[in-house]
Amino acid sequence: MSLLVVGSIALDTLRMPGGKVYTDVAGGSCSYFIHSAAFFSRVRVVSVVGEDFPKKYVDGFKKCRADLAGLKVLPGETFRWHGTYHKDMNNRTTDATIFGVLGEFDPVLPAKYCDSKFIFLACSQPKLQAKVLDQAQGSPVAVIDTIEFYIKNDRKELDKVIRRCQGLFVSETEARMMLGEDNLAKCAEDLHRKYKLQFVVLKKGEHGGILVDKNGMTPFPGFPLMKITDPTGAGDSFAGGFMGALAKAGKTDGAALRQAIVSATAVASHACEGIGLSGLMKATAAQVRARANAFVKMTRLG
Amino acid sequence: MSLLVVGSIALDTLRMPGGKVYTDVAGGSCSYFIHSAAFFSRVRVVSVVGEDFPKKYVDGFKKCRADLAGLKVLPGETFRWHGTYHKDMNNRTTDATIFGVLGEFDPVLPAKYCDSKFIFLACSQPKLQAKVLDQAQGSPVAVIDTIEFYIKNDRKELDKVIRRCQGLFVSETEARMMLGEDNLAKCAEDLHRKYKLQFVVLKKGEHGGILVDKNGMTPFPGFPLMKITDPTGAGDSFAGGFMGALAKAGKTDGAALRQAIVSATAVASHACEGIGLSGLMKATAAQVRARANAFVKMTRLG
Asked: How many Å apart are CA A203 and CA B85, to the nearest integer?
């Protein structure tokens, strides 16, 4: 079924442990989402870049068979994020955020996108996320992601738009902040109930996460990777794999959600194996399938 | 098959978030191990307490059908640990450690213990752990635990005794310290290979852990508990459930190790539901079984 993502496209500068610096790396939620979801589903994209955005990255999106009718090119600079990773890769510092044309982002859906059955609202201002839902027709499965900034500074609008969604992606820090509660299992369950959602995915990075739906809790570990080259975009790749798998299944029952966790874990692990999008671009569909199968097998306890 | 634990018995003072203080709470690795392993196997105990150790706790061990022939009562005070938990329960501060009679601990096995088929060397000086192995006859499955102190200060002896064991329990901090490596999956695999062990269990607290054996990796999540009352002894309870399940199975093949992870997770979760041993004492065998079954079911991804 049709899948729409609305979010950012960036050019990242990544300072890795050891001192190596990578500049003009394609990033942002949409870039990772497109390359991840592509293993399972075609993706419709609503985003914005500046005139400086390299053609090679657009060609990469096209190779993923993404529908780019909703990708605007505006005069000015592409959104830029500069980050430095610390030695253990679980900690990073944002050195700079330059909004560029993302500051003028107005998510207008091409008419043909309005019937999308699955919608991922990647992190952006809650009012813009709401505007996407305003344009959607029918009863899509809308899943939302956010960041600490909007939880702190735009909570009322954020709460309103979450209530209009079916699913929520949230990190452990965000979940604790939203509820003022430390226990993560309780956070996941409380968010599921409070916002009357079909499902919540509480993400714990390398430690996996907890899925909550009407059948209860599904705690899952992370994929044990021997080497993490670049964790940038792991969360957005997880979301891409998850939504891609749901769109492919065309449903959100318990089995589809668990399969989506498996697909998401597999693609996110590939995303971490190369700088920027290169880990995802190197991975073949067969490799992603093999890793997904390995993950199901290695986590089966009885 | 026969199961022996050698380790500490303590009287703990626990300062919980909110300010409540509990004194003279039975603790130490053996206390939690006995009450956890008892759900699966009888336990032979080698430990030491002072004359101040309350009879009610000894009665508790007897109710677990523990063999206490190796429990010495020496003139003097029982080992004491004072700790303060922070708000999120994952962090605690040690306020005081009073060794008392534990300073004179000399692990002499009663003759009838020497044929034990499964041996758990709870944390103590590596030389004392080695002394236990010196007394063991046949080819027992010996599993060792340690703490950062011995990794820092007695590494050579620790390495020697680990090489004599079949299994290793290690926390994420300890694993990183032992190898100077941040990646936990790599740590687990490197420890498995370096010490030529049958298996390694790398424990990540509420995030579960990673089991490594000759079949590969088994990453597992923690049990999603809605309320954690007291995490003291969760690691020792995990070890007790794990070793109890192995002793019950009488083997250490892949299926037995995965079942041991399940049993360990179930009892450790009960241990966290009451102050000190009370969570374990309240739990019935049927409740532990039900939780173990629930854990297998909730972690099955495909």
From this structure: 25
At A86-120, the pLDDT tens digits run: 987 878 999 999 999 999 999 999 999 999 999 99
Secondary structure letter of residue B142 according to DSSP: E
Residues B221 and B261: their CA atoms lie apart, in Å, by 10
Give the pair of three-digit tokens for residue B107: 């692990």
How high is the pLDDT of residue B89? 81
- Per-residue burial over B27-53, b if 16 or more Cβ lie within 10 Å, else e, is bbbbbbbbbbbbbbbbbbbbbbbbeeb
Is residue B293 within 8 Å of B247, Cβ to Cβ?
A: no
Give the residue on A whose Cα is nearest the Cα of B204.
A207
What does the pLDDT average to over A122-139?
97
Phi-psi region of B294 (alpha: psi -120 to 50; beta: other; left: phi over 0): alpha
Q: Are A74 and A104 in contact (CB under 8 A)?
A: yes
Strand ranges in chain B using DSSP code E only, listed in sequence order: 3-6, 10-15, 21-27, 44-50, 67-74, 79-85, 92-98, 118-121, 141-144, 167-171, 199-203, 209-213, 216-220
Alpha-carbon distance of B208 to A261, in angstroms, equals: 18
The residues, ordered by sequence, that sit 6+ positions from B208 with a Cβ below 8 Å of its Cβ are A207, A219, A221, B219, B220, B221, B222, B265
- Mutate which: B207, B212, B214, B228, vs A, most A CBs within 10 A: B207
Tracing tokens 């309103």 back to the chain, one arrives at A160
Neighbours of A285 (CB within 10 A): 10
CA gap A191, A2 in Å, rounded: 27
Q: What ipTM goes with this model? A: 0.95
Alpha helices in B52-204 (DSSP H): 55-63, 126-135, 148-153, 155-163, 172-179, 184-194
Token readout for B183 is 């990646």
Element (H or E) spanning A126, and its range? helix A126-135
Q: Residue for token digits 């939620």?
A: A29
Question: Rounded distance, CA A194 to CA B74, Å?
Answer: 56
If you count DSSP H runs as helices and E runs as strands, how many of each does chain A have, helices first? Answer: 11, 13
Q: Does B194 touch chain A (CB under 8 A)?
A: no
Q: At what angle do helices B55-63 and B28-37 cross, to 10 degrees?
A: 30
Strand order of the β-sheet with A199-203 is: A67-74, A44-50, A3-6, A118-121, A141-144, A167-171, A199-203, A209-213, A216-220
Residues in A touching B210 (Cβ below 8 Å)? 221, 224
Of B217, B262, B300, the CB nearest to A224: B217
Q: Spell out the residues 6+ positions from residue A163 whose beta carbon is closer than 8 angstroms to its own.
A: A195, A196
Which H or E element spans position A196?
Answer: none
Give the pTM. Answer: 0.96
Task: Tell me how crowded residue B180 is: count the other CB atoms within 10 A of its CB.
Answer: 7
Nearest 5°: the CA angle A195, A267, A107 is: 50
